[in-house]
Fold each of these.
Amino acid sequence: MPGKFQPTSILVTGGAGFIGSNFINHFLPANPGCRVVNLDLLTYAGNLKNLTAVEKKTDYRFVHGDVCDGELVRRILDEERIDAVLHFAAESHVDRSITGPEIFVRTNVLGTQILLEASREHAGKVRNFRYLQVSTDEVYGSLGAEGYFTEETPLAPNSPYSASKAGADLLVRAYFETFGLPTLNTRCSNNYGPYHFPEKLIPLMIHNIMEEKPLPVYGDGLNVRDWLHVKDHSAAIETVLKGGKPGEIFNIGGNNEWRNIDIVNLVCDLMDDRLKRTPGTSRKLIRFVKDRPGHDRRYAIDASKLKRELGWEPSYTFERGIAETIDWYLSHQEWVAEVVSGAYRQYYREQYAEVGEQ
Ligand code: NAD
Ligand code: TYD
C-alpha cells in the first residue's frame, strides 16, 4: 500500500521472550527480504528454543547482549543499517517487581532511554526510521466495574512493573517531542499463547494442573484481565509499525474480559478433558491465597483507534485460542520442563560465555 513504512532491517530487543519470539516467528516469514536482528540478554525469561523455526534463516541474527549497553546497541544499529527498532525487552512480571523493583527500573527505564538515545543518533543515517515501544495497559492503573482504557486515559501505574513501563513510555514521548524521533507506542492487554513463561497466570495453571500441584488464586479471584492471543498482538505491532503516524499511541486488545477465577475454572475443565481425568478433578486444586499487594482490580482496553485508523482486527476467538494454547503446552512438555527447571539457562551460559558474543 503506498505511503506505508516498509522496513528493510529491524532490531527486535527481547526477541527470545514470550511476545518477542512470537513476533519474530510471525514477522520474519511474512516479510521476506527484511533482516531481523534479535538483541536479548537471555535472562530467566529468554529462551532461544522459542526461535528454532527461524534461527537458520540468513535474514536472522541473534546477538547476546544488554539493552543497557549503549556501545553494543550503537554498533548493531550501524552495522546492520537498522531502520526500525522494536523494543520488547523488559522485566515483565508484576510479582517479581514487588520483591525486587530495582532491576525493573534498570532494564525498563534506563534500557529504554539508552535505546532511544542510540536511535536518535542513528535515525538520520537511514532513509526512513521508526522506533516502536511495546508497552502495556497496566500503565493506566486500575478500572472499576465500568469503562475502558483509551489512549487518553491518564497514566496511573500501581506496581513497580507498571511504573517502570510508564516511565519508559514518558521517555518515548519526550524523545518524540524534544528530538523529533519518529516514535510509536503500543499498549496491550494481557497476552496468552505459546512460549509463555509458566510464572504468569494461564501457563502456571496449565503447568500446575499437569503436575497436580495447587492452583494459587490471589485474593477473591474476581480481578478482571482482558486477554489477547499473542499472535494477534504480533500482527497488531506489525500494523502499527508500518501504518502508524509517528508520535502516536495505540491501544491493543481483544475485547475479552475474564475474571481470574472463571479463567482458572475454564483451564481446569479443558485440562480434565484433555488428560481424561474425571470432570471436576483439577478444580479441587484451586487455593485462594493472600492477595497481591496493590493488585489492580480490572483492566479493559478500548482498541477502537487501532481498528478504525489502521484496520487491525483480532483473528482469534478466545475459545479457539485457549484450546490451542492448552494443546500446545501438552505437546511441548519438554519445553516446559526445561524452562521450569532452568536447564536451558545453563546451556546458554556455556554457549554464550560473554555478553556481546553471537
Ligand atoms: P518476557 O519476560 O517473556 O521476555 C522478556 C525478554 O527480554 C526475555 O527474552 C529477556 O531475556 C529479555 N531481556 C530482559 N532484560 C534484558 C536486557 N537488559 N537486555 C536485553 N534483553 C533483555 O516478556 P514478554 O511477556 O514477552 O513481554 C514483552 C514486552 O511486552 C514487555 O515490554 C512487556 O512489558 C510487554 N507486554 C507484555 C504483556 C504480557 O501479557 N506478557 C502485555 C502487554 C505488554
Ligand atoms: P499475571 O499473569 O501475573 O499478569 P498481570 O499481573 O500482569 O495482569 O496475572 C494475571 C492475573 O492473575 C492477575 O490478576 C494476578 C492473578 N494471578 C493469580 O491469581 N495467581 C497467580 O498465581 C498468578 C501468577 C496471577
Amino acid sequence: MIIVMEAGAHKENVDRVIAEVESLGYRAHPLFGTDRTVIACLGDERGKERIQTLDSLPEVERVVPILRPFKLSSREVRPETTIVDVKGVKIGGKALVVMAGPCAVESREQILEVAHAVKEAGAHILRGGAFKPRTSPYSFQGLAEQGLKFLAEASQATGLPVVTELVDAHQLDMVQDYVDMIQIGARNSQNFFLLSSLGRAVKPVLLKRGMMSTIEEYLMAAEYVVTNGNGNVVLCERGIRTFETYTRNTLDLNAVAAMKKLSHLPVTVDPSHGTGRWDLVPPMCYASVAAGADGLLVEVHTHPDKAVSDGPQSLKPEKFQAMVKTLRAFAEAAGRTL
Ligand code: PEP
Ligand code: MN
C-alpha cells in the first residue's frame, strides 16, 4: 500500500503516519518527491485493510494499493524519474550519460590509454572490469585488486568517475573503496544474496539485466537492492538470449520503453553486449536514445584485435568518437542534452 500525503504536508503529520504504519507491523518507507511525500508500507499484503484506515489521519490525501510486485522501484510510488548521482555525474536527468571503456582492465597502460581516449571523445564515466565472470574457467579472469588500483589511477588522471563489476559480496567494501559505482553483471542479476548485500553499499549500483530475465523478474532484482536500503540503482538493458545467432544477444529495446514506464529508476543500454558486434553498436546507441534511454554503456578498446575479452564488440576510440558526435543529434531530437 502507499499513503499519499497532501502537497506540502507538515513533517509532524508525515512522522505520525510513519509511526502508525510501524505500529501496525509494517515497514514504512517514505519517498520525498518534489511535490509530495509518499509513504510505502511494506509487509504482509493480507493486512492491508488496516492500513486503509489511516486515510483519516491529518494531511493524508489517499491510501492506495501498489499494484506492481516491484513496490519501491515502481513508478506508482514515485512519478518522477530518480536521479542517480555518480560522483557528480547525474543519471536520469535531461543530460544523456555515456559510460565507456574496455571490457576488462588488462594493464595500467591499457586502461590509462583508453580512459584518456574516451574522455576526449566525450564520455562521462569510465568502465572496466577487474573481476571477469567468464563462461570458461580457462579464460582471463581479471586483474582483481590490482585492476581496481589501475582504474582508480585512470579516474584520477582523467577526472572520470569509474564503474566496475562486483561478483562477490565479501569484496563489496574493497571494491567500493576504489570505484564510484558498482556494476552487477547479467550472470549475477538474480543472485539475491549479492543483491541484498548492496543495500548497505554506499555507492550507486549499475544493475544489468539477466540474459534470461523477464522485465518483471529484472525489476524484482532491482527491488532487492532498493528494499535493502540502497535506492541508487541504475538499470541496464544488455540483451537477452533468443534463437538469433547472428548477434551475441538480442538487444531488447521494448524493455527500455517499458521500464521507463514501469519504474522510476534510470534506464541505460549496453549495445556492446546486446549485439556482440562493434559495427552494430552505433546504430543501437542511437535507437536506445530514441527508445528513452537515460544513458549508454559502450565497450571501447584501442586494439580490439588484441583485447583479452570482448574485442569483436569493442569500438576503437575514433569510431567511438564519431558515434558520440552523431549521437548528439539523436539526443537533441529526444529532448536531451549531450
Ligand atoms: C561487462 O560489462 O563486461 C559484462 C560482463 O557484462 P554482462 O554482465 O552484461 O555480460
Ligand atoms: Mn564485456
